[in-house]
Automatic annotation (TrEMBL):
Originating organism: Nibrella saemangeumensis
Assigned keywords, A-Z: Hydrolase, Signal
Signal peptide: 1-23
Keyword match Calcium: no
UniProt name for this protein: M20 family metallopeptidase
Lineage: Bacteria, Pseudomonadati, Bacteroidota, Cytophagia, Cytophagales
Annotated Peptidase M20 dimerisation domain residues: 212-306
Database matches in SUPFAM superfamilies: Bacterial exopeptidase dimerisation domain (SSF55031), Zn-dependent exopeptidases (SSF53187)
Cited Gene3D superfamilies: 3.30.70.360, Zn peptidases
Segments forming a coiled coil: none
Length: 487
């Protein structure tokens, strides 16, 4: 285990001027005490997040990141069950006993190809292949901070109940939470809380897109591309034929469906007919039945491509996630607490960073979104409930009532999965947003412990949304975790 960077702690303590602002009304005394305790640990949790930012470990390879978060929880008296659901980097940390049981989700995987220094201009880090372009280093750390704060409150108040921190790897395409749901690790949990980094603050009851992903592998016969082309059967031709058919199919599927792919292997040299090629596909739709129908047609296109190119094709499902099931009553509760905590107030130095990085967004964003927006909490709304992304939080939300929020860990106008997100996430701007989330999750958990009728109401809403005859079946089927999908 690497020790926390003490220099970073000192630097962070100096730069975190202008603490996160609190909106009216102010928190009651017991809540205010817990929030003050969290605020006093900002530098420590900032150092934890920075270390995970430095690790930048991709899905199912988050060995150091997972171990660091587990150690934080063990030091605070949590019982940690490691390597759950057949995943070495997944864990469940538990404190307390009895009902209610409140779960908090933590993520910590990075994205490939997005290594970046914490600067407002594009500066890839030499020798690094991944970066936290979705802010999961903040997600994991902020959730752990919240779980520990809830534990401290349970101790101080003498309240009965249980808090569980779920360490969930490989959200980025690996569907880590799906295996944990399938394993029954959320059984008996009353409500699950989560959050996500973003460029604004809000707790609207939004949903997401269901997603199925897979790698299609074509195998042919190698030959000299000029000397004996008739003896070759190009696996790359199979991939390209499949892609062509899927692209034509876009005209004839529901317009809100998203299909995208990358060719991960296309051969080694132009004068050698490739005997192996691979393409990695995602398909998404908010309705999983529509998605499954579209997916069947994608598979048929692959089969037709293999037939037409005289190659063989095999498909490996990599991931599959449900859409998020939004619970409005829980979202209103979380929004109330987020409004009490308030957004992120920048120092002069942070404002200069934000303005400089905003110049890289282009006119359409840089002139519209202002750094000051990070201090604002959005108005509660149910008008636009669908995001363009997908998350394995979706499967959790169909297994237990779930609620989430976003915090401004990035400069307003920043796109997720960008170098700008990596850069801001490695600064005090990201840490401030993380602490907004940690405080909001903590207050929401306290409300649920204090008032069981909130859980009863949420569960009734959840059961109605799921439907009477709902039976969970993972979209990725019976496969084991795809532990090598990023290798």
């Amino acid at each position: 285990m690497n020790k926390l960077n003490t220099q970073w702690i000192g630097l962070l303590a100096l730069t975190l001027l202008g603490p996160v602002t609190f909106a009216q009304p102010k928190a009651p005394k017991d809540q205010e005490s817990i929030l003050t305790g969290l605020e006093s640990k900002t530098a420590h949790y900032g150092a934890v997040a920075k270390q995970i930012w430095d690790f930048a470990e991709v899905g199912y390879q988050e060995v150091k990141s997972s171990a660091l978060l587990q150690e934080e929880l063990k030091k605070e008296g949590f019982a940690v069950q490691a390597s759950v659901a057949g995943i070495p980097t997944a864990f469940v940390a538990t404190y307390g006993s009895g009902k209610p049981v409140i779960g908090i989700l933590a993520e910590y995987d990075a994205l490939p190809g997005l290594a970046q220094e914490a600067t407002p201009e594009r500066k890839p880090i030499d020798g690094k292949k991944a970066g936290h372009a979705c802010g999961h280093h903040l997600f994991g750390t902020g959730s752990v901070a919240s779980a520990i704060a809830v534990k401290n409150w349970l101790q101080k108040s003498g309240k009965s109940g249980t808090v569980k921190l779920y360490g969930t790897p490989a959200e980025e395409g690996g569907s880590g939470k799906v295996y944990m749901v399938r394993e029954g690790l959320f059984n008996g949990t009353d409500v699950v809380l989560h959050w996500h980094p973003g460029d604004s603050n809000g707790a609207d009851p939004s949903t997401s897109l269901a997603n199925i992903s897979a790698k299609f592998r074509f195998r042919g016969i190698s030959a000299h591309a000029a000397g004996a082309p008739e003896r070759g059967r190009s696996a790359l031709d199979g991939v390209e034929a499949m892609n062509h058919m899927v692209n034509m199919m876009r005209e004839h599927i529901p317009s809100d469906t998203r299909v995208h792919y990358v060719i991960t292997k296309g051969g080694e040299a132009p004068n050698v007919v490739p005997d192996f090629a691979e393409v990695y596909y995602y398909a998404r739709n908010k309705n999983r039945e529509i998605l499954q129908d579209v997916w069947k047609r994608i598979v048929k296109a692959a089969e037709g491509a293999a037939l037409g190119t005289d190659t063989k094709m095999e498909v490996e499902i990599i991931g599959g996630v449900y859409n998020v099931l939004p619970i409005e009553s829980l979202s209103r509760l979380m929004h109330k607490n987020l409004s009490m905590v308030g957004g992120v107030t920048y120092t002069d130095e942070e404002t200069r960073f934000a303005e400089k990085i905003g110049e890289t967004f282009g006119a359409s964003f840089g002139s519209i979104r202002k750094p000051q927006e990070a201090a604002r909490v959005g108005t509660f709304s149910t008008n636009d409930p669908t995001s363009g992304g997908s998350t394995d939080v979706g499967d959790v939300s169909w297994a237990v009532p779930t609620v989430g929020m976003r915090a401004a860990t990035w400069v307003p106008g920043t796109a997720a999965h960008s170098w700008q997100a990596v850069a801001a996430g490695g600064t005090s701007i990201g840490v401030k947003g993380m602490m907004v989330a940690a405080k909001t999750l903590t207050l929401t958990a306290m409300d649920l412990f204090n008032d069981p009728t909130l859980i009863t109401k949420a569960r009734a809403e959840w059961e109605e949304l799921r439907g009477k005859n709902f039976k969970y079946e993972a979209l990725l089927g019976p496969r084991k975790p795809a532990l090598d999908y990023r290798k």
